[in-house]
Design goal:
Alpha-1-antitrypsin, domain 1; serine-type endopeptidase inhibitor activity; 14 strands; seven-stranded mixed beta sheet; 3 helices
Length: about 230
Amino acid sequence: HRTKMVIANAIYFKGLWTLPFEKSDTRDSQFTLLDGRKKDIKLMYKHMEGTSFCNFQDIEAKAVCLSFKESKLRMFILLPNREDGLPQLLNKIFTVCPTPHGKGDKLYLDMFLSLTHYYTEEVNLYLPRFKIGEGDPSVNLNDTMMKLGVSKIFDRDVADFSGMTDVRRLFVSSIVHCAVLEVDEEGAEAAAATGISCMIECSMPPQPVDFKVTHPFVVAIADDQGTPL
């Protein structure tokens, strides 16, 4: 066996909503999958008079940000306008283009995770209870890291880990990541190892925005600086 070193990073987080969902408001509903099939779900409901919201017209999606009690972490939910719009949305926000300095350019993702692009809105939020990631295979991050400009560590001829170990000709063969996220009325529990514009739409008098998460969406937990968990 040629493995000389394994570097592991583990994160665990359990957060309670600042404003929890009332269990009595949870109803049976249906979630539309990408192939058009319907899945029975438990749909939670919460009316929020002042929540962080944004209509990202450039990527044809809307987003809300939910806060956790006694925590700087927040949950960001990005919902495509179309029921089948998730593949196109993911392609836009996670496309990473190398720059001359070797860093990735991911403006849409940065906007999604930055509260500076959000504004206070009255929202009727419908969010399913869900648990994702458990039992799923790990994701290999080699290609993602290379697109971000991190490539030398994978090259056995140029990788340099002399600051960490005396072992010679040490290089990274693979980076894998797995994550689990569970959301219910009380909060969220997560574990892990490893020229664009935002338009603000206003009406007088303002009407609550119905934010119904009943088709595939993007979810992320990040801190106040937009750094994902």
